[in-house]
Amino acid sequence: MKFSFLLLLLIVAGTSGCGGGGGGGSSSSSSSSSSSATNTPAPATLQLDPTWTLQTADPAELNLNTSDVDAILNHIFTDQAVQSALLVRNGWIIGQRFSPGVDINTLGTSWSVAKSFYAALIGIALEEGWLTGLDQPASDFLSEWASGDKEAITIRDILEMRAGYGADSGIYYETDQSAFAIDFPKTREQGTTFEYSDPTSQLLEPIILRSTGMNAHAYLTEKILLPIGIDPNLIGMWLDRTGTNPLTYMGLDMTPLDMARFGLLYARNGEWDGNQIVPASYVQASLSAQTDYYGLQWWGLNGPFFGQDPPILISAALGLNGQKIYVWPAEDLVLVVQTQYEHSANQGYVLSDSNFPDTCTARNACPGSTGAEVASYSEFTLMSLLAELVD
User: 14 CB contacts (<8 Å, ≥6 apart)?
Assistant: First the structure.
């Protein structure tokens, strides 16, 4: 099966054209939400303290209405392609629901949600002294850019999607995708126009390797995954078609619980259980709109994003066909959504025409699919439901 590259750009499809939704299934014997039927909040004396354990709790134990949690999950699952949804408040799982045959240990895939993971490594490399600052020229590590029109492109330009690269690249079909990203033509002045671009994010792979001496997968494992409790042996990290280059614009297969751990890390300013994993200032810059609605490889779900002012302001890592990590630091809230995924770990994680992260089948968006694409939920409505939860 062959993926049209146009699909890769649909990660920002949604109510505003930015951020595809997910959805599928309804509550059944294999679907659950971790809340009881009561709509009455528990007394304040039952308020649970914030935790890092990501264990389940009844919403009432956090003074929240079960009906509000159910409304959020019901809305997400109006999208018939959704595989899982996990809602976390103060480190407690207060809502979870899965499509039939799926549970909290079932792998989904990230698509472009991975961009936010690998961007976090830049903050760590800064803290460790491998990089001098966000305004350091990337050509310090990409010698191919020396004395050319890309020499002045900074690491900040790359993270903000303002490197001067265009969007429609075809990188997905290339063999050596890092070389393709390095050689991709610059079409405008760096540091000016936002242009969402997968080749721009793939530049993080050679920058991480050449600055730290570790490939992006190894650096991610050592600096983030293991410290926050994600077992690298139980996830999938995709390589390009050479079988050697980590993909940094896509390609992490994880459970919803794994994704929630990363979301909680960012909701809490890069700290994990008393240890500063990612510098707090870098996390704050990442989640703040540096352009109209984009930070450092994170989306700002704000007025420019939706085309109208939402009731709350949160950030999100967004991926093709409806992969989502929503992060609301002010409320210590994380929401993960994954859509139905077809891939077996024994197929391996080297990208090819026949081996790829298949979320298009459930979305009815594969090449050759007939009929209408499965519609996503309204992301703007979701913002209203989240606002009601904490009101």
Answer: 20, 21, 318, 376, 379
CATH of the domain at 162: 3.40.710.10
Angle (CA) 109-114-118 rounded to 5° is 150
53 CB neighbour count, 10 Å cutoff: 10
Q: How far is CA 364 from the centre of its chain?
A: 22
pLDDT digits (tens, 9 = 90+) for 104-134: 999 999 999 999 999 999 999 999 999 999 9
- In the chain, the number of structural domains is 1
Q: Which residue has the tokens 């629901």?
A: 97
**pTM of this prediction?**
0.90
Cα separation, 372 vs 363, in Å, equals 9
Per the CB < 8 A criterion, the answer to whether 246 and 216 are in contact is yes
Query: In which domain, by residue range, is 215 found?
Result: 5-390
- Report the pLDDT value the prediction gives residue 46, as an integer from 0 to 100: 56
- Cα–Cα nearest to 54, from 341, 234, 259, 222: 259
